[in-house]
Amino acid sequence: MARPSLRSRRRIITPPLLVSQLETPAAVVDLDRLAANLDRMASYCAVHGLALRPHVKTHKSPRIAAEQLRRGAIGLTCATPRELEVMSDACDDLLLAYPLVGAARIRRVMALRRTVRLTVALDSLEALEALAAAADEASREIGVYVEIDVGMHRVGVASAERAIAVARRTRAMPPLQYRGIAFYPGHVREPIAQQDASLARLRGDLAAFTGALADAGLAPGVVSGGSTPAAWRMHEVAGVTEVRPGTYVYNDRATAALGACAWDDCALAVLATVVSTSVPGQAVVDAGTKALGREPLPEGPGAGFACVMDRPDVVVTRMSEEHGILDLSRTSWRPRIGDTIRLVPNHVCVVVHLNDTIHGLRGEVVETSWPVTARGREAAPEGAA
Amino acid sequence: MARPSLRSRRRIITPPLLVSQLETPAAVVDLDRLAANLDRMASYCAVHGLALRPHVKTHKSPRIAAEQLRRGAIGLTCATPRELEVMSDACDDLLLAYPLVGAARIRRVMALRRTVRLTVALDSLEALEALAAAADEASREIGVYVEIDVGMHRVGVASAERAIAVARRTRAMPPLQYRGIAFYPGHVREPIAQQDASLARLRGDLAAFTGALADAGLAPGVVSGGSTPAAWRMHEVAGVTEVRPGTYVYNDRATAALGACAWDDCALAVLATVVSTSVPGQAVVDAGTKALGREPLPEGPGAGFACVMDRPDVVVTRMSEEHGILDLSRTSWRPRIGDTIRLVPNHVCVVVHLNDTIHGLRGEVVETSWPVTARGREAAPEGAA
Q1: 3-state DSSP: chain A helix, strand, coil percent, rounded to 5?
Q2: Which residues of A touch B26 (CB under 8 A)?
Q3: How confident is the model at residue B321 (pLDDT cuts 50, 70, 90)?
Q4: What is the rounded distance in angstroms from the CA atom of residue A148 to the CA atom of residue B379?
Q5: Taking the model in full, what pTM does it have?
């Protein structure tokens, strides 16, 4: 081995922070995987002429948002007032993909920087009237997407008649601007190779809505869809102009299980330490519900809540708030007390929401750390972004 | 009705904040219920001569901790370094009921104010040796509880021989002080009226451990148990000297389902707004996984994730990150868009961990709000407590 040069010796004197020095549990992101994930979705959308308006709920970070915008995203999608406030420092084109209901919430959203071009997705005349009154009072133009239900059965108007009624009423209230329709294909949860039937239904439902709207003189300027599991086949759904995936930046165990990413595309892991091996057949790590969430896989709760990154067959099968129980019954691997492992969570968005800081890794080095600025509900402190 | 006096008229001019003015989702606590819950456990422990060392993981607040100490708690139980740091401003006697493993974690714990009498529960010689080395280096006396497994199968030594080995080794390392044993009866999850068989097994297992330790000249000074569901019958388990319940301050749907509290003892609710009623048979509220967690009831996932406080038959059966779906199929109640409701979560500890602020209500008035100071992982900012 070559003797280290003076320069590399100096580096040894002020060594970089290594992942092994982080206190656990901690959320760590492989920066190379993150960049590749960002590139892949940007490239897919560019190739297929889809506008990319990523949902920030996954990362809640203006730094990652800036990376998405730099790669061609036309704007951002948010769910909460805090997400809007934080992202308004990074972007001038924001969609609130959440019904804007409640006086306090409306007030906060109306107070956003006026240079922000704001669009709100909604599914009721009640929400629309309240928005119109607030927009009028603020003398502020607000765009509207009419949210339609195409099978998720969560929010969204169920019929073309309702969509027409909401769109028409939007047109009648000048501070509001009818900009299109939005849907969320969260019900398309088959592995991506098996989505043919779901996508055929989606195409049909969407055509019924857009056709009826067009006949009523209300052809939508934007048809906004999205979700990571369905994102890679959205170009097969005629009429869609915009997608709003979120999870793709980090991916997770559920996304990999659906084939919507490769296993090696999982960029975020929860770093955990083995704290007890006293009960035979298991090892206890310091990541439980308060670090991993308790989200199911498509296969159901039997599949556990997270798995070891480089041993996907070793699964967290039970949890308490601060304990994760690794089932060792089907492996000869025996971790020791003090060992650190990386766990890939089932649902990464929930994990990010449980953290204040994310650590970015280049190999074993903690190259950078960033705050989850849009986590929480309260107004962000000045300059938080 | 009497005409309001000038004084009360003045009050009307600067009105108090009402719960209806809070932005949702928000965690709200009925202050009268909270006080009654604190009183009830303090009184139970006093009557039965049990030392109360409540676990702070539920409230993560030095304010609530102070109320527990004022009512006679002898100290506090913590799970994380941040909980220890925050609580060290409120209390001089802290138990870390979590294996102290990992260099970064040990360093943080050793840096606690030296006036704090610290005890650590552990279940391995590995953790013990590392603790002894750190205590020696810091010239700091640290108490040790040997953690034993009496049926939870999470952490804890499984045999009296192991307990003796750990206790004996503790005695051999002077900066450490063998203070007793700890167990967590989290497996006692029957309704409290049906715990007879579990408690009989617990008595037997505990007697085997304490008897063997006594025979080895290692009789435990403290036998520390706890957990809210089993707390009300701990006086029936001979030998237990200390309990560590956490959940009892707020209670929750799971605790009520076990009969370990009355329904009206549930002090914390998630205030939520109905944001959509467009899909028939359901109403969508703005509290999803990121506000409620996804914790099961003892009855299993079919029982849903939360219910309406004054309509316990109306349940959140599905969730997305920011959406909770109230199933209205078995009620004639039809909430309207904009209505606010209070949801009792299945597991309150996880909900508190999702919030930065808790609002204390006296009737409909927000009398006080307090930060969840020990939420998160990082060192608390100066003066945070």
Answers
A1: 35, 25, 40
A2: 377
A3: very high
A4: 45
A5: 0.94
